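TL;DR need structure tokens for one chain.
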Amino acid sequence: MVFEGENMEQWIYYEKPTVGFAGSTFFNIPIILKIDDYPLIQVVDAEQNSIPAGYTVEFEIYNSDGIYLAKAKGSRLFLTSEGEKVNLKLRYPSLMTVCELDGRTLFEMRRQEAAALNTRAELYTPNGSFIKGNDTEGLLFSETLTCVEPALVNNSFLENKEFKDKMIGIQMMSSTSS
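>> reply
TL;DR here they are.
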């Protein structure tokens, strides 16, 4: 099942892959956040009527049990069979796309300027760990996760950092991964 924005103003795509997440900016980085082997937040090619239209952000959505519920790509939501059983919805307030599960916000994508997208997220990983990223608190995550890249100082994510021209911006590993 696919849910899509009702008009072009709700579609989210950009000419350059620049994304703000967890108080930092990511330039030309295809995978913003990767947990183990799973890219949870990534920049992907966008299409409009089968025509390339720049880039958009894609989120993998899991519940606290690690069950894969959906993929959100820009303003579209692709539900799995498990995702169809839960109350997962997209809303479109002014210049935003918001994904909610049972009324709780999982992520927001805010359109700021022609080539930038700012996002905040509260997501579960495939192993059920919790991760949260926003401009105010930076990056917060369960004790079951370890940040591999970038290196943390006093177990704290470096805010206001710029990441450029890398394959992966933030790489984390779970203590339960093998």
